[in-house]
Amino acid sequence: MTTFSGSPRILKGGIVLLDPASGAVQRIIALQYNPDTLTRTLHIQGISAEAGDRMEAMRLKGPPTEVFKLEAEIDATDQLEVVDQTTVEVGLYPQLAALETIVYPTSSTLQANNALAAGGTLEIMPAEASLTLFIWSKNRIVPVILTEFSITEEAFDPSLNPIRAKVNLSMRVLSINDVGFNERASSLYLAYQQQKERLASRHAGGTLSALGIGANAFTV
C-alpha cells in the first residue's frame, strides 16, 4: 500500500530550551498532538488618563503583555502497540517529566546552594532557568516563561504508570520590557514582533464605504 506523496507534512508545536548564555539547544519537546485551540490574550500597556495629562491616554508604554494558553493531550497507546520498552516500563512519565522539569531548578543546583548556605554564604543568587521558546510554526518563535501548569492524568496501566494525560500550559511572552535589549530573549522577541508587522503589512485592508461612511466622517 502506498501513501500520497503530495500529502502535506503536519508540523508539530512545541517547546525548545536554550542555554541562556550560549544559545545551545538543551532540549526539544514536540507536542504529540497539536491542540485544537490556542488562546492568546494581549494586555495593552497604555497610560491611563487618570494618571496625569489626558494627552498621555493615547500613548503606549511598551509592547502588550501577551499570554498563550493551550491544552495538550498525551497518549501512550501508539507506543504500547509497538511495545516501546520505555513506555511499557514507565508509561508517560518521561514526557510529563520533560515538561515539568522546565519549572524546577536542577537538583544539583539545590545541593550546591545548600552547601553554600552551610558554608556561611549570606546571599545566594536564584538559579537561572533555561531560555524557553514556544514554537508554533516558523511565524511564531516566542521567548516565554511558564506561569501556570496543570496535569490531569486520565488513565493508568496495571503498575499505575500514567498512559493518558492532558497538560494545560499558560505562557507569558518575554518582551523587551522583561529582559532589556542586550539579552538573547530580546532579539528573539523583536524578531517575533517584526514578523507580526510584516504579516500586518500584507493585509489588504478595507474601505470606508464598506463601513458606510466617507472620509468626511472624520472632519471635526
Q: How would you characterize the overall build of this protein?
A:
- By secondary structure, the chain is of the alpha+beta class.
- It has a domain at 14-33 and 71-195.
- It is 24% helix and 28% strand.
- The chain has helices at 77-81, 85-90, 93-100, 107-118, 176-179, 184-201, and strands at 14-18, 25-30, 38-43, 65-75, 131-135, 141-156, 162-173.
- Strands 2-1-5-6-7-4-3 form a seven-stranded antiparallel beta sheet.
- β1 and β2 (25-30) form a beta hairpin.
- The longest helix has 18 residues, at 184-201.
- The chain is extended and about 75 Å long.
- It starts with 13 loop residues before the first strand and ends in a 19-residue tail after the last helix.
- The mean pLDDT is 89.
Please give the alpha-carbon distance between the first and last residues. 71 Å
Query: What is the share of helical residues?
Result: 10-25%
Can you count the beta strands? 7
The residue ranges in which pLDDT falls below 50 over 5 or more consecutive positions are none
What is the strand arrangement across the widest sheet?
2-1-5-6-7-4-3
Can you write the helix and strand succession as a string?
Answer: EEEEHHHHEEEHH
Strand content: 25-35%
Principal-axes shape call: extended
Mean pLDDT: 89
* Major sheet size, sense and barrel closure: 7 strands, antiparallel
Total DSSP helices? 6
